[in-house]
Amino acid sequence: MWDYLRLEVRRTLRDTGFVIGGIAMPVMMYLLFTNIGENDGTWRTASMIGMAAYGAVGSALNTGGAVAEDRAVGWLRQLRVTPMTPREVVTGRALTGAVTVLPAIVAVLTAGGLVNGVRLSAVQWAATALLLWLGSVPFTLLGLGNGYRLTGPATGVANMMCNLGLAVVGGLWFPVSLFPHWLRSLSAYTPTNRFAELGTSVAGGHAPAPAAILVLTSWLLAFGSYAVLSYRRGAGNI
Fold first, then answer.
1. Is 55 exposed, middle or buried (0-12, 13-18, 19+ CB in 10 A)?
2. Directed axis angle between helix 137-149 and helix 210-234, to 10°?
3. What is the residue extent of each domain of the chain?
4. pLDDT tens-place string over residues 133-142
């Protein structure tokens, strides 16, 4: 399984589309959004975490796109004749997603510190990166669920819609305070809003609220169930 993990990580990081869309784009959007007009340090910090979360979500969902492509070319069928069990195959893919979200997180945080002058303690930087990394797992499972259930083109569309929709409603691009009241209330129950809250809480000097952990855990269970059901449904076509 570990050899499979190394193979998939290398394949993903060599993908030009992944590097541009999953790493470079969040950095460019962050620098653009925070250098137009007058922005204080608070917004630059909050936007840094929001765009790091946005990049992590996109990279996590990308794992599902790779699964759909492998299904189309028969790669997953070949894996079924190897000594790896289906659980090891799914676990390897999930770990691939967990590894490939790191470049996006690190790139945006680095841009915040070196370009925009965001100042956090060493512990806060490390804790922010760690929590964003751990908090990305539900989105990897969502991407896997889409990849095992849908065709390649359909997976790409579904992942794009999930990424953009959750990013906007979750407040990763713009402050939730700008939303109308009803949308602000809805945003509090989205996984992306609570995902970003993990980082903003640490940057603000306090631990994440129990509500954030509860909501994100609920989405983890929901997306995990979706991934398992999708795999079982698509097993006959792999």
1. buried
2. 20
3. 2-237
4. 999 999 999 9
